[in-house]
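Subject: design request, 411 residues
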């Protein structure tokens, strides 16, 4: 096979980063547009505001477990095809949302979309690790996480703007159009040549393949540092993403009385997370992941407590601080998992993201219990318990890292 020239390789790497970042924006617009439309969904489908949050939870649930499937599939057939096919089917599935008549039908389509949304996050980090030069890797990961944040902001604000001005059918038609344009761009930008995972070249029986896949997941789950990174990401997302769902209900009620669209502007607080994601590569290189985990935990704790102050300004500042802490945590976890995985890379990333989105899906029903008891004050109490668990997980991760470093120095 002809060796790629440096110029071609650099061009292909740039196209790959752009393609996966645009794919990420498309995925997160589709995932989170409904979060910006929760009050409108509650009214249109005649359910309570708290029930409407399930539209996000069920999608996160199927997304979480589908990540494991795509990790195996991409190790078998390559990274390119699963991403492209899943995105085109995702675009087509938005047509079903246009014609959804009942809340049950909406939930069923969102369950399907969760399975389609999983391909890009499951494969992207492994794709980067295989296709990019090491000097590109940390920077590409940081830019990719920043794209996640931008997609999340765009989706939620987009949803709030549509809910304020458009009907449900028109809104979903617009989501279909935006998705179609994004998917076409991704398909055009993705380099056609890819370095195939080594496992594709192996000539083994079906039973042997299944065992290899199972062993890959077990290999990462048997690593205590990997397990703790998975738990850290899952707990952080369990709290943060669902706080954003319930805060809309809080600031639309008295004494704030914000309109539907104005309430969704709280999602602009994600911008601090975008900034933290962009700087995370430099910070991780300079300070390491563990000190940043501790800083991020303090930020999420302070930000959450600040929202108890009974002013809109305090709530906005609190969410800016929490979002910064969360995205710093997410960036550290992503980089930690990607760099620690020496084999079965897609499986390592997919296990992390499975825990991450499983946390999001469980956090909605969990915090809903606290919301029903004491509304926003209850949500803060529920969040404190998650932060306490997060503190324990980070402390344990520090102990394992210190033990590993001691063994290396003795060796």
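Subject: RE: design request

Done. Sequence follows.
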């Amino acid at each position: 096979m002809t060796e790629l020239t440096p110029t071609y390789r650099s061009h292909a790497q740039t196209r790959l980063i752009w393609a996966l970042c645009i794919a990420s924006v498309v995925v997160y617009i589709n995932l989170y547009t409904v979060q910006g439309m929760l009050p409108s969904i509650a009214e249109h489908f005649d359910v309570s505001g708290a029930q409407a949050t399930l539209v996000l939870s069920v999608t996160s649930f199927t997304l979480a477990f589908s990540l494991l499937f795509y990790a195996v599939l991409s190790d078998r057939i390559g990274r390119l095809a699963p991403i492209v096919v899943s995105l085109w089917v995702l675009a087509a599935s938005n047509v079903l949302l246009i014609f959804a008549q009942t809340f049950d039908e909406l939930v069923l389509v969102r369950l399907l979309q969760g399975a389609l949304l999983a391909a890009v996050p499951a494969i992207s980090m492994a794709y980067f690790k295989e296709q990019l030069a090491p000097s590109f890797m940390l920077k590409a990961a940081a830019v990719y996480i920043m794209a996640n944040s931008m997609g999340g902001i765009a989706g939620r604000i987009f949803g709030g703007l549509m809910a304020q001005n458009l009907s449900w059918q028109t809104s979903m038609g617009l989501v279909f159009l935006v998705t179609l344009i994004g998917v076409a761009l991704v398909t055009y930008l993705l380099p056609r040549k890819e370095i195939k995972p080594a496992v594709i070249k192996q000539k083994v029986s079906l039973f042997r393949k299944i065992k290899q896949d199972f062993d890959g997941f077990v290999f990462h789950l048997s690593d205590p540092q990997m397990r703790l990174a998975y738990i850290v990401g899952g707990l952080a997302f369990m709290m943060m993403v669902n706080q954003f769902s319930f805060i809309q209900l809080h600031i639309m009620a008295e004494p704030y009385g914000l309109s539907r669209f104005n309430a969704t502007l709280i999602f602009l607080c994600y911008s601090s997370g975008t900034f933290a994601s962009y700087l995370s590569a430099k910070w991780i290189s300079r300070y390491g992941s563990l000190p940043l985990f501790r800083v991020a935990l303090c930020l999420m704790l302070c930000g959450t407590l600040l929202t108890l102050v009974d002013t809109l300004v305090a709530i906005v500042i609190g969410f800016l601080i929490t979002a910064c802490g969360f995205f710093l945590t997410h960036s550290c976890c992503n980089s930690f998992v990607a760099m620690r995985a020496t084999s079965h890379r897609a499986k390592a990333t997919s296990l992390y993201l499975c825990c991450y989105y499983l946390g999001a899906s469980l956090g909605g029903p969990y915090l809903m219990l606290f919301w029903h008891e004491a509304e926003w004050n209850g949500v803060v109490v529920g969040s404190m318990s998650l932060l306490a668990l997060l503190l324990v997980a980070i402390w344990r991760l520090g102990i394992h890292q210190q033990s590993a470093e001691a063994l290396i120095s003795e060796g």
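The radius of gyration is 21 Å.
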